[in-house]
Design brief:
By secondary structure, the protein is an alpha/beta fold. It has one domain: TIM Barrel (Alpha-Beta Barrel), CATH 3.20.20.140. It is 41% helix and 13% strand. The strands form 2 sheets. Strands 1, 2, 3, 4, 5 and 6 form a 6-stranded parallel beta sheet that branches. Helix 9 links the parallel strand 7 and strand 8. Helix 10 crosses helix 11. The longest helix has 19 residues. The protein is globular. The protein starts with 5 loop residues before the first helix and ends with a helix.
Length: 330
């Protein structure tokens, strides 16, 4: 791994301490739902809890409710149960964390010195093909929805369900329009390529890809090719570089792989359209150099080492995602 001199170390610490650090995706809720650990207590299990977020200097964390395939027959009930469990954890720790429903909430909670929690849903199965569920989830505090996971649902084909060659369904088009009206961010992680381009044609507001990697490093539908990366930038959207770099090959990878992904996204999309979406607690392996969230400063250290300016690092660490969330969710 890279080594910094004393001056670079001081600069990295200063940048990290003064930046708004925003991680756009984690799957920690599932671990809490299973009773494996709590959000408020430091654990050696998994990647994220509130003490480690504080230690890592992470100011905003999006917690995703992943719609597990075994939930599909009763997805709405399962998702709302998971949201209830997360909210209980947040309430128990309200002295150090707050749930943001709007952009102004993000600023208010941050100014209070608390960690900002945001709520997302990963998988449109949560709607159960009922458009009115969007209004319900908005009321519950959902600020972004990943339209698909790997499987096809009523909205679109997922990244691993491509036999039909389909994109958005008619219902999916309706979902895009209603999400924009309600102020729920559209997240295109995991969607099929055809679904991606259908959304690009229909969406009128910026969209995000909360956690992804460049297809240049591994040619799978889950990853973004250069044309898709450019399209996100043209929508004024943001791509979160995932830490799931084991998809590059057989090993878990290391922090240099993540930095390579950031470099590629920046080279294609521009620095204003790149952020971080760790996929912590959705990653089965520990990535060398950033084994859990308290080591987030190593991303900052790596960008210092690779020659990014202070302003560029601040944008990638969280400024870009903060901009988009404030713009879209109100």
């Amino acid at each position: 791994m890279f080594k910094l001199n004393e001056e670079q170390e001081k600069r990295a610490s200063r940048i990290h301490d003064t930046s708004f650090v925003f991680d756009a995706h984690c799957d920690t809720i599932l671990s809490i739902l299973k009773g494996e650990r709590s959000l408020g207590e430091r654990s050696d299990l998994g990647h994220i809890d509130l003490p480690r977020l504080k230690e890592g200097g992470i100011n905003a964390q999006t917690f995703a409710v992943f719609v597990c395939p075994e939930w599909y027959n009763d997805a709405a009930h399962s998702v709302m149960k998971a949201i209830a469990v997360l909210k209980r954890e947040l309430q128990k720790n309200s002295n150090v964390v707050g749930l943001a429903r709007t952009g102004s909430d993000i600023r208010k909670i941050y100014d209070e010195g608390k960690t900002v929690a945001l709520l997302s849903i990963e998988g449109g199965e949560a709607l159960q093909a009922d458009i009115d569920m969007l209004d319900i989830y908005k009321e519950l505090g959902v600020t972004s929805i990943t339209l698909t996971w790997n499987n096809r649902n009523a909205i679109a084909d997922g990244a691993l369900d491509l036999r039909s060659g389909g994109g958005l369904s008619d219902f999916g088009v309706e979902v895009i329009k209603q999400m924009e009206q309600l102020g729920i961010l559209i997240d295109l992680s995991h969607i099929s390529p055809n679904g991606f381009w259908d959304v690009m044609e229909i969406a009128t507001k910026p969209v995000i890809v909360s956690h992804s990697l460049p297809r240049k490093f591994m040619d799978i539908p889950r990853n973004l090719d250069d044309k898709q990366i450019k399209a996100i930038a043209q929508k004024d959207g943001v791509i979160g570089a995932s830490f799931y770099v084991s998809s590059y090959g057989e090993s878990a990878g290391d922090i240099e792989d993540i930095l390579d992904a950031i470099d590629h996204f920046v080279n294609i999309a521009g620095v204003e359209h790149v952020g971080l979406g760790s996929d912590f607690d959705g990653i089965s392996e520990n990535v060398e150099g950033i084994e859990s969230c308290e080591k987030m400063i190593n991303i900052t250290r790596g960008m210092v080492y690779r020659g990014y300016s202070d302003e560029e690092i601040q944008k990638i660490l969280g400024g870009n995602f903060l901009r988009i969330f404030e713009q879209v969710i109100g």
